[in-house]
UniProtKB/TrEMBL annotation:
Gene3D superfamilies: HUPs
Compartment(s): Cytoplasm
Protein's UniProt name: Universal stress protein
InterPro entries, per the entry: Rossmann-like_a/b/a_fold (IPR014729), Universal_stress_UspA (IPR006015), UspA (IPR006016)
Keywords: Cytoplasm
Stored SUPFAM superfamilies: Adenine nucleotide alpha hydrolases-like
Family as reported in the entry's similarity comment: Belongs to the universal stress protein A family.
CDD domains linked to this entry: USP-like (cd00293)
A Pfam family that the UniProt record links to this protein: Usp
Domain UspA, residue spans: 3-142
GO cellular component, one term: cytoplasm
Keyword set includes Cytoplasm: yes
Top-rank taxon, per record: Bacteria
Length: 145
């Protein structure tokens, strides 16, 4: 079985990315390891008293993101593609690459924005960083308006 790591950010193009990853997984007899990386500073805010940490904000955000991951996992499983998910906090590029190595990924599937000819905007800075630093093949799916 082919192991595919699929990072998601819950943006407006996530559905297209999932559709492309599911199609690819079916073609290669793959299973999807869905990952979302939340920033480490979710519960922090700055105000008159400087930086403040609100653990309830972080807990609520993480809980909501886990609900979204569960829904995506169920949609992928409904297409008869094996899938598991995880949510981690930290620097997205580092966490994704680490997770891909842990899962012995054969591919990482990412999306491009398709908004401009400028490489960083076209591909996306996270996708660019992953493709630059990964020794695992990265499949970049075109995600358009």
């Amino acid at each position: 079985m082919v192991n595919i790591v699929l990072p998601v950010d819950f943006g407006d193009k996530t559905e297209q990315l999932i559709e492309g990853a599911v199609k690819f997984a079916k073609q290669v007899n793959g299973r999807i390891f869905l990952i979302h990386v939340a920033p480490s500073d979710i519960g922090f805010a700055i105000g008159d008293m400087g930086f403040q940490y609100f653990p309830e904000v972080e807990e609520n955000e993480i809980r909501e993101e886990l609900v979204q991951l569960n829904k995506i996992q169920q949609r992928i499983l409904a297409h008869d593609v094996d899938c598991e998910h995880i949510l981690k906090q930290g620097i997205a590029k580092d966490i994704i690459l680490e997770h891909a190595h842990e899962k012995k990924a054969d591919f990482i599937v990412m999306g491009s924005h398709g908004r401009s000819g400028i490489y960083d905007v076209f591909v996306g800075s996270l996708t660019k960083g992953i493709t630059k630093d990964s020794n695992i093949p990265v499949l970049v799916l075109p995600i358009h308006e």
